[in-house]
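Checklist before submission:
- one chain only
- standard amino acids only
- sequence pasted in full

Submission:
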Amino acid sequence: MKIIVSAGGTGGHLYPALALVEYIKKQKPDTEFLFVGTTDRLESKVVPSLGYEYRGLNVKGFVGNPIQKIKNGLIFIKSLGQSKKILKEFCPDIVIGFGGYPSASIVMAAAQKGIKTMIHEQNSIIGLTNKILIKKVDSIVCCYQKALEQFPSNKTVLLGNPRASVVSSQELKDIHDIYRIDKVRKTVVIVMGSLGSSSVNSVMKEALRSMQHDNYDIIYVTGQNYYDEMKKELIDLNSSVHLVPYVEDMPSLISSCDLIVSRAGATTLAEITALGCPSLIIPSPYVVLNHQEYNAQELVDAFAAEMILEKDFNTQNFVEKVRFLLSHDEVLDKMKINTKKLGKPHACEDIYKEMMKLLERK
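Returned file contents:
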């Protein structure tokens, strides 16, 4: 079997794609993969380093002023020709797009040539690339009920994010052992992504001073760019506050903390729901189509999470919310149950089965 996978621009597109590919490799070790992405973004470095064959397309998003959009449109048309050449050389059985503008080129070209196609939408709001491809592809996989309602019902299935399968099956550590915290003490993990957030950090300086005397430990992931500044600013905090720049094993922290405070990226929420962790979500307002707020709202509507919009995020609001949640075990227990219900720990297996069913149809 030969598969082309396309995921462009961000880790939110790339890492679910890699998770599915790793699963397929275990089921059919002789499968050949070719990744198609950009020439200069994250995937162009990560994918080759993992030993996968990779082809980069010179494509750009449909953004900017009208003249720039026209230029980018012409570049896209040219990339269709490049994509058809790739398809002719590799001869895939199926092309799977995980979003990002390179996916539009290779998936559309595959559809035009009659090759089986599938797209995966990680967010509750459909991205521009997948909007372009809706009518052209054979199968659509999504992760949220809101997205399911927007796609054609005859070819769309709600199966989840492949990253959920990864974290559900890996060996996890206990946060108390990692940070040498007394087992009887509750812990809250606060993380705004690998780079951190300057706006959140400014509020957290005062919030952490207020919470350091509460009866729980705090793991605060500052982001690599802000660690030195925050460490210097908060040097007088007591030992219940643990400042770290970055966390390699985020699933272990999610699985063993009592509450996680985070953004609402698709991969993050897939891991949180798969592991059943209560969450307080501060969605980033700086993303396309404000999709993080819509992602978070799905959890809030299911009574699986609480949310504070960044415009309402201040020390008093945040501290009161955390204190309330950590002092009400019955609320945390209900959130944990409801979060777990939203999890899709078998996402890889289910997507693989859907892919195989598609390939069986002639």
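Reviewer check: The chain is about 50% helix and 15% strand.
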